[in-house]
Amino acid sequence: MITLFTLQIHYEQDVVQARQRTRELAEQLGFDGQDQARLATAVSEIARNAFQYAQGGTVQFDLVENRQTFLIQVQDQGRGIPHLSDVLAGRYQSPTGMGLGIVGTRRLMDAFEIESSEQGTTVRLSKALPKRSPRVSSGESPPLTDSQLQQIREAVGGRSPQNPYDEIQRQNQELLRAMAELRKREEELTFLNRELEDTNRGVIALYAELDEKASSLQQANELKTRFLSNMSHEFRTPLNSILSLSRMLLARMDGDLTAEQEKQVTFIQKAADGLSELVNDLLDLAKVEAGKTEVRPSAFEVSDLFATLRGMLRPLLVQGSSVSLVVEEPDALPPLYSDEGKIAQILRNFVSNALKFTERGEVRVTAEQVGHMIQLSVSDTGIGIAPDDQERIFEDFVQIESDLQKQVKGTGLGLPLSRKLAELMDGSVSVQSEPGQGSTFSVCIPIVYPKAAELPASLQPVTALNPARLPILAIEDHTETLFIYEKHLQTSRYQLIATRTLAQARQALQQLKPAAIVLDILLEGQNGWTFLREIKSDEATRDIPVLVITVVDNEKQAIALGADGFLIKPVDQLPLLTKLNTLISQGKAQKLLLIDDDPAYRYVVKQWLTDMPLQFLEAEGGRQGLAVAESEQPTAILLDLEMPEFSGFDALDRLRHNPVTQSIPVIIHSSTQLTVEAQNRLAQQGVAILSKEKTSQAEAVSHLREALAKAGLVLDA
């Protein structure tokens, strides 16, 4: 810190002198006239406060921060400012004035600090030196040298104080200039406001005209759409008649035709076929636009859809064609709950287009899961589509010019119809293509149609509970989320009871006591917070753990209202199972019963799970395992199948028929090669089937820990 000048305030005229010295120093440091006035006004206000409230003080002018910041410190030895926080907030009004001096000063400076106590007050005001200075022609001003600082000290210190009346006159002139500038800006703003008002009136008139035209166009479009959708029968009936009659003539049902007559009837039939295809697409599109196309969701497997498509699409291949149609078998995809017919129609359009514009190579149909969606794609090795045309192809009647386009027929409505059908099912259609390399058309469909009026059969409220599984009551108004919960829990020890309204949830609670409740707070038109308080205030339900799962991070509020756990959507399987296991076990001792005749393998399993909070129980055979299970009631059982005298198959059957042990989760852990029938039978009785023949220890441990989580065990202490 380099001190430039210090001034003592003893008398009222010293306040004026402080203002003068501030202006002079600011001028020497290169500040422009406006900043000089700001600095002088700010120092004058603080110095006057020091004189008025503390009967004097000190004003010190410094350079800091590598000589690039002008710092003014005003100190006094008064009693301090008793209402400093109110003053800084602008809430305090002084009995001798408005109390706005400090607040106004703070606004004029780059930085403002104030410290006040009963021993006095210190105010620090700072402003960065201007980037450009009279001392240099361009760029930032370099730090002032010692000789320059000495010149400034001598110039300011050597001047005699000016007449206070001259300073007041100068201050008045500054105020007059400021008022004139404000008046000029006010006039400019008034003029600008008039122009804006005129413009707004014009814009409002234009919007009114556009709204009127848009309304007329909408009415015309609705009339057109309604006309087409209502004329379905009237259009199709004569076309079908023409096609039927032409087939009769070509079949010689009424006698032979001459060669010329056969050619003429063939032309009629081809024209009627083309017109029929155009009418069908046009009417389907019109029905969608008119809102007359309904989505009829049903549960179906993607593999079954592909099997149907194989049979339907094979005839589209030209005999001897160099193009092959490949429909890949989908791998481990969940069943879809959507409109199978509309999805098939979209894929037929994709495949039909791909075959038309592919001369050699292949057309491949694939499916994969992407989050909560299923993406069905049709890829080809055809002519491809230019980037500029990739959006145009989804417009009505648009067909891209190409050599192949002239050879194939089409209506230009298949892709627009496919996009509208996908949007109707809350899905989307996309394309990736490169000219000469081929194209990939994809449709993404939600696993569960979110607007379904009824739940899928797997999510219907359960009347008969499975005694071997713990019921979990889920309250969620989005069908898709319920479907995901059901998939997460279907291979675990838990059974999902799905409800979409609070009324359904209350009815379910009257019929059963779930092991836990999964609650979405943000239910449309319903108050989930009230329901949470209701559960926790009722003696019959207050002990049921409540897990709140929602899209908003309001964990503190949920816990404060009684929730036992909180997760943010979307939730994966393992975090959901881990949270449910923790809430339901409530710190209870976890016992894992190992039923295996191989002591070495029991030892290996215990070593794998040594970091888990488990108490291990062991049995050398099936009969001993049954006795231990009945007496100790373990949390879960790890069961080998191949054991002498009493096999794991027999032990599992006895466990499930014993009321004492039927609800204990069983994990099959065996090296036995199982048939598909045996696997299906065991899957209905156990939580998981694990093979001892894993390729690595890490893989074996990972699969075992996942199975234990599904069995309800808490993996971490």
Q: Could you provide a short overview of the structure?
A:
With 717 residues, the protein is α/β, with parallel strands linked by helices. The chain is built from 21 helices and 22 strands. The protein has five domains: 161 residues, Histidine kinase-like ATPase, C-terminal domain (Heat Shock Protein 90); 58 residues; 126 residues, Heat Shock Protein 90; 129 residues, 3-Layer(aba) Sandwich (Rossmann fold), CATH 3.40.50.2300; 120 residues, Rossmann fold, CATH 3.40.50.
Summarize the helices and strands and which ones pair or pack.
Layout (H helix, E strand, L loop, with lengths): L1 E8 L2 H17 L4 H22 L2 E8 L4 E8 L7 H5 L12 H8 L2 E7 L2 E9 L17 H12 L6 H67 L1 H19 L8 H31 L8 E3 L1 H12 L9 E5 L8 E3 L1 H17 L4 E10 L2 E8 L33 H11 L3 E7 L3 E9 L23 E6 L3 H11 L4 E6 L2 H10 L4 E4 L8 H10 L8 E5 L4 H6 L4 E4 L4 H13 L5 E5 L3 H10 L6 E5 L2 H11 L3 E4 L8 H10 L8 E5 L5 H8 L4 E4 L5 H14 L7
Parallel strand pairs: 7-9, 13-14, 13-15, 15-16, 16-17, 18-19, 18-20, 20-21, 21-22
Antiparallel strand pairs: 1-2, 2-3, 3-5, 4-5, 6-8, 9-10, 10-12, 11-12
Helix pairs in contact: 1-2, 2-4, 6-8, 7-8, 8-11, 10-11, 18-19
